[in-house]
Amino acid sequence: MTVGRMLRPGMYRAAILLLTLLMAAPAMAEPFIIAHRGASGERPEHTLAAYERAIDQGADYIEPDLVLTRDGVLVARHENEIGGTTDVADHPEFATRRTSKTIDGQPVSGWFTEDFTLAELRTLRARERLPQLRPANSRFNDLYLIPTFEEILKLVRAKEAELGRRIGLYPETKHPGYFAGIGLPHQQPLLALLSRYGYQTEADPVFIQSFEVGNLKALRAATRLRLIQLVDGEGGPADEPGTTYADMMTTQGLQQIADYADGVGPATAMVLAPDGSTGLVDRAHQAGLQVHVWTLRMENGFLPAAFQRPDDPQGRGDFAGYVRAVAGTGVDAMFSDFPKQARQALNPAP
User: Domain GP-PDE spans what residues (predicted)?
Assistant: First the structure.
C-alpha cells in the first residue's frame, strides 16, 4: 500500500505542506515554547496549577495576561471581565456589581476586576473558560484562586530552584489604554514587580507583549526588557484607530515597530497559509524582529483544514504535523495551550 493511499486527504495535504516547508527552509534554531496562559489545555487557564504544570512539562516561558484590581494589584485573567472564568455569578453579595462597559470600543457585560479589591477577588474561584470544548478541565473548577502577578513570580522562583533552570515570563498588558484611562495604568506596578524580582535588562528571560502601541512605546522609554508587538489578522490597535495590523506587517510597518519593540506576535495564519509560508517571518527577520506566533491548539476547531481529523474521538487533529509546519516557516517561538505536546512534536521520540 502506498503512503498516499494510507493517508486521508487532509493528512496527505498536511504532509505535502510540511515536506515543502522543510525542504525550502535552511537549518534554524528550534523555536522556544510559550505556555499560553499556562498548560491551559489541561488545567483552567491563568491558575497557579496551569502555570506549574506547564513548567513541569518543559515550557520555556509561561504567559500571564495581566489586568488590575480596584486597589491597583496586577492579577492574571484572560480579560478584565470575569463572568466566564470564575464563580462570581454564584456569589449573591456581588450581584449588583454586574454591569455593562465599553472596552476598546466594544460593549461588554459582566463583572470586571477593576470593580473588585484584591480581598474581594480572593473570595472567588477560577473556572474553565471553554467547558464544552475541554470538559475534563471542569474537574478543577472552584479549586484555585485568581493569582496575583507577584504570586506567579514567586512560583517561578520556586520552580527554578527545584528544577535548576531558568523559566521565562511573558506577561501581556490587557487593555492598557482602557486601564490607564480609569487611573489604573499597568506600567508602574508591572516594572516595579519585575525589578524587585531581578528582571531589568534584555538579558533576562522576559518579554512584555501588547496588542496596543502606545504602552509599548512608553515601556521602551522606561525599561530595557524585551517588548513584543502583538498583531492579529484583522483590525488594528485599539489606541491607534487609524492604523491596521495589516499596515503594520508591511516592510515599512515592520521597520517602524523595530524602533520600539524586539519582535512581533502574529496569529499563526499570518505566517502559514494553506499553500505554505506567507513570507512574514522573513520580512520581520530582515527588520531585526523576532517572530512569536499564537496560538497552537490541538482541537480540530483551532486547526487549519489540512491538519484536522474529523473522525478523531477526542476532537483533536494532527497537532504534531501542524507544530512542525509552523516551525518550518522559521518562527522564533510559538504559544501553545499544550506545551508538552508542542515540545514532543519538535523532538519526536526515535
Answer: 31-346
Residue 63 lies in a domain: yes
Answer yes or no: are the C-beta atoms of 228 and 203 closer than 8 Å.
Answer: no
Cα separation, 300 vs 249, in Å, equals 28
Report the C-alpha gap between 158 and 173 in whole angstroms: 24
| Other beta carbons within 10 Å of 181 | 10
With beta carbons less than 8 A apart as the criterion, state whether 277 and 270 touch. no
Which residues does the chain have with pLDDT short of 70?
1-28
For the chain, the domain total comes to: 1
Distance of alpha carbon 196 from alpha carbon 150, whole angstroms = 10
Residues pairing with 335 in the sheet: 34
- Asked, for residue 303, whether it belongs to a domain, the answer is yes
CB atoms within 10 A of CB 81: 19
H or E element at residue 12: helix 9-24
Element (H or E) spanning 248, and its range? helix 245-248
Domain that includes residue 60, residue range: 3-77+146-346
pTM over 0.70: yes
Q: Are 296 and 342 in contact (CB under 8 A)?
A: yes
- For the stretch 112-147, pLDDT in tens is 999 999 999 999 999 999 999 999 999 999 999 999
The pLDDT tens digits for 190-236 are 999 999 999 999 999 999 999 999 999 999 999 999 999 999 999 99
Helix (H, G, I), strand (E, B) or coil at 334: strand
- Note whether residue 72 is domain-resident: yes
- Residue 39 is which amino acid? A
Q: Is residue 127 part of a domain?
A: no
Give the residue carrying C-alpha cell 523559566: 167
